[in-house]
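Prompt: I keep going back and forth on a fold encoding question. Comparing notes only helps if you start from a blank page. Show me how you would write down a chain together with its backbone fold. Please set it down just below, with no commentary around it:
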Amino acid sequence: MRRPGSAGCGAFLLPPPILELGMELMISEETLRQMPAEDRATLARSLAAVNDELPSLSASEHRRRRLVLMLTVASAALIPWIVLLALTLPRHYVAGHWRLTWVGFDIILLTTLVATAYFAWRRRQAVVITAFITATLLTCDAWFDITTASGQKDTLEAIASAVLVELPLAVLLFWVAYRLLRAAVRRACGLDGHPAEPVRLATQPLIGVRRSSG
């Protein structure tokens, strides 16, 4: 399929049927299916290079740097704060607004559960966000239920609830959100002309942000 003697790395010869309209070429879906996977990937990379000229998140590079700096400072400040709490907090404490705390927390948890169910039913990308949030809240719920339990009976009930309900559901939601995110990234890599590129979220560059040399 490649054009003989072409020097460009992205040059390829498109097979018929290609419909010529004036100076434009319209490539049919049948033609794309007939092209080798390598040629389709080359075409996708060429289109991605053209689209790269459009505005992207890289225009906010200075905001990204400020965000990284802010999070770094917050992380560093949290370390001595944790040490201070470990040394000064009492073992027992009478909390105010106890009912409001837990009722409010459960209302938030209910909201995220309903939102996750709705977005999953409607097959919306927002399910990734709500699933991560809900899983995090369920994990926090299990943690505080156990650590704030008073007496052996309450502690055993909290542990049973965490092991049988909250943590399994949290793991499921984390797994679903992770799989959906990987699938979306894999799809984006394919559209960018890199269908065979392995998807590793920890090292995968942000989509829509140009890779910088620095």
The chain has a mean pLDDT of 79. DSSP finds six helices and two strands in the chain.
